[in-house]
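Worked example (supplementary).
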Amino acid sequence: MSKLRLSPPLIALLLAVALFFLGGLLAPGFVNLAQAINIIRLSAFLGIISAGQTLVIISGGEGIDLSIGAIVTLSAILVFRIVDGQNSMVLPALAVALLAGTAFGALNGLGVTALGVPPLVMTLGMAGVVQGSILVLTQGQLVGKTAPIMPKLISHPLILGVPGVVVIWGLVGLGMWLLLERTVYGKRLFAVGVNRTTSRLSGVRVPRTVLLTYALSGLLSALGGFMLLGFTQSVFLNLGERYLFPSVAAVVVGGTVLAGGKGSYWGTMSGALVLTLIGSLLTAVQLPEAARQIILGATLLVLLSAYGRQRSLRQ
Amino acid sequence: MNVSLSARNIVKHFGGVTALSDGNLDVSSGTVVALLGANGSGKSTLAKIITGVLEPDGGGIELDGRPVRFTSPQAAMQQGIAAVYQELSLIPDMTVTENIWLGHEPLRWGVRVNRRVLLQRTEALLDLFRGAFQPTLEPDAPVASLPPDEKQIVEILKAISREPRLMILDEATASLDSRQVQRLFELMTTWKQQGMALVFVSHRMDEIFRVADQAVVLRNGATAGALPMADASERKLVSLMVGVEARSPATVVGAETVQRRAETSARIRLATRDLAADRLHEVNFTVHDGELVGLGGLRGQGQEELLLALFGAIPFHGKIILDDEPVHFAHPRDAMERGVAYVPGERAAQGLLLIRSILENLQLPSWARYGAILDMREARSDAQRISDDLSLVMASLDAPVESLSGGNAQKVVLGKWLLREPTLLLLNDPTKGVDVGTKAEFYQKLTELRNDGAAILFYSSDDDELLGLCDRVLVMQDGHIRAELQGDDLTRANLVAASMGAPQENQAQPNHAQSDVQEAA
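After joint prediction of all chains, the assembly is encoded as:
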């Protein structure tokens, strides 16, 4: 067994690098530092939004969080409204948004554990509830304003030309690695994802772990919404929705197993890079939207079947 | 409908294990043959070969004097052979009627008969047991809504709906109440008079004497005897099941590793009072410090439920007294924190995280000890110590558990609890499918733990282990403790007799468990 085994996260990372240089061949001027930083910046939004999805999918039991898009939107709209152009309101607004995201996530977790609702159904229903709450909250009028400090901290270059969101993404990555690999929660999360009977008979309180996971997913989605607002600086009712499918795709491309119990966040980070690169590349060669969708979907299928082959070869 | 079946010299291997080496059974119209044997004697295997579920590796079956070879249960059914199993073959989401007629829906002119006719036929079948079940058992009732006894009745009706010439009932009475058993026996007598041949597998000695005409006794995969019930006594059947050559228990384990402790220290680690759960009825017993107590009996007699209740993994009634203090564990975690450990029976499904590393499997119950940010170095060195201690054969601590052999995987299951130094260790048939060498290491480890003062409750389906390893054995049947054997009473014959509900050769002294509980309370 060599040290550098071709694991799915590594495949995804290598693919991202390859795609970047392929971009240089297809579209002159694609390969340069500014472009690289821009790609990473774009990936950071998807990457942060996919962090919660990674946890939920690792937790197994057909775990998936389809309310991520709605919570991203809710968070952005809450911050937009509360901040209303004042720098001093940024932190309180962030706190409210994170709290709201955590609360809706915890409700998902309660439905899945206490009521036994399948995660797909529970989180899809919750997406509807959150969207409805947004309408009630805003009465259809999206009033508010971002604070000047937000784009400065998030999308503009912060340190040595690196945008704040990339720094934050790095911190999220470090935090997720610690959470998954160096905390009791992380060890229990993988255990619960692999086998709930074994976990329970080894003293793990399975429902508690699962509930915490969905709550964390809500929290991280809300953080993603805050970041996204700092980038777009405006809100609309389906702001987060277009990140829902890519959030699942990024996790899976990064080698996290949909059945649960196996995966990593650095895989998801690589997955976010791959997806963003494919998107940018197809835009750069000026393919129509329909063709982009087809190529994106086909790439996912090829990657996933390759991972599947790898597993069956091993056995 | 005359029928005669004769199975001769049947051989069946599973991998390297010989389940049957010389199975013989004869049955013909108008007789009920009881098939008896201890755990692992091959009675289920023989029954499954006759019904076409398994194909024999050797020997032959003759039906009505002609050799036959069944390649599937369907093939056996076409010859009029049907079976009723204890593990139910019903589909929960379908109705009683749909289940009974599944696969042989009555046809008229090549199309299914209409619903009304089908319901009438189902009613007619239900009439056989009328009065012995609740009115909620109707042709349209979904099977999932039925209690276990009524499911068993449906299972019997499903077999009889095929109008078999030969019917095998494998532990079919286990979940029936006495009235239902009585009705079944009346029906069996009727069917017998109509010319059916019946094979009856039961773990209840009294039932065998009530209903059987002949007995076939299996021992270690071979037919040890066949005799008419008129000539049989409980003593005779038990001695056929046990055999005369009874190996000395010590040879099984390795004499130097096991010294049975003459006396146990007085302190009671565990006592129960009227402990009851699903399939477990008012169980009273005690386990002392430094005592290795065996749980015996045939499989599925409540041993697993008893261990799970003690570990807080299933709901229960009654009292559990641990270290002189009543406890009521609602979750395995509560039990774990009080020094209780449980090694489950199905290690892949209940004991291991197959795709995760050995390290993570060993540390799963114990991570919380290593701080908010886990001290991996310490966790790893602790895991290394335990795996050295158990002489675990592995590539590294980071290798997935699925890469280990069965014996080494089972060591991981034990090892994760040894890391916590349990004071009460519950084991559910831990050596099943484990190689001989590892078994010996396992016995040695258990003996060490016992000598260090741990209380151990050890269920085994292998009588040799109970005889060779345990200080005292509680024999269970139908969720009750039927006997408590120790000292000179702990013999193979007594184990087998108690597991079948028959009296022992020299009756053990009255059960001390009750008085021990009084002291503990």
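Two points are worth noting when inspecting this output. Chain A touches chain B at residues 1, 178, 182-184, 187-188, 190-191, 194-195, 197-205, 261-262 (CB under 8 Å). The radius of gyration of chain A is 19 Å.
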